[in-house]
Amino acid sequence: MMDWTDRHCRYFHRVLAPGARLYTEMVTTGAVLHGDRDRLLAFDPSEHPVALQLGGSEPDALAASARIAEDLGYDEVNLNVGCPSDRVQSGRFGACLMREPDLVAECVAAMGEAVSIPVTVKHRIGVDDQDDQVDLDRFVATVAAAGCRVFIVHARKAWLQGVSPKENRELPPLNYDRVYGLKSDYPDLTIVINGGIDSLGAAQHHLERVAGVMLGRAAYQNPYLLAQLDAMLAGSELLERERYLNRLIPYIERELGNGVYLKHISRHLLGLYQGIPGAKRWRRIISERAHLAGADVSVIEEARDAVLETAVV
Description:
The chain has helices at residues 7-16, 29-34, 37-41, 59-72, 86-90, 101-114, 133-145, 176-185, 200-207, 217-221, 224-234, 241-257, 262-266, 279-289, 297-312; strands at residues 22-23, 27-28, 50-55, 76-81, 119-124, 150-154, 190-194, 212-214. By secondary structure, the chain is α/β, with parallel strands linked by helices. The protein starts with 6 loop residues before the first helix and ends with a helix.
């Protein structure tokens, strides 16, 4: 979710889902150690529990980055061993590390020694031709022995040669049974499933077999799904979309007052009304006006009212 789940996105998702655990976009150790930390790592207190997702393969750098995360108040640090992008491969982190479980274990051990917050791993079920169950078992067993107790498993292997990152989101087919098998084989570990989960029914089905579900693109493209899932799991009231939006408006006003441009927040809201009458008007008003000089919260309010008017008609 690089360039997607920034702090504005996470604040919005927290409004929708008070009980969810939020993850940052993946941040490299180089950026954490040498970049603009205020821009990359800042988060609002309301985001708790929130995890910093790291990209890297050097134990010392990951340990130092984990310490920074803990000092900043993050509740978890997550090592990404699942991203298949070309940029990630050239930096020797992400999914290519599936081939090096001993190195991942060394990284996890170093991070675990550096912090008291949980160190977790997000990974694929395999990579390229390394697709045997024995490879996945070895990876999980090796990393678990280094102290990792939570594994977030994208139920699709990654092709790092000849397939684009976009194609890696669709090919090869998802294999949820491989993830279920991990939970059966390692009952003491917390196994969270990820990949292709885009409905309440799908989430409920998976939760019967594993400890948790992670939503990525589905939650971004249809954020109201987060509210629906959170309400279902908590047994709480599901609110109308505009009520969640109204709760977000004070945050938008505050951020605009701090010099943030509306477009940097509004881009995360475009999917809120997905699939209902008025959704096109909502997206059109925001897309046409949010980037203009001086754009303020009235753009969001006008777009909201346009949806409500459509529903009444």
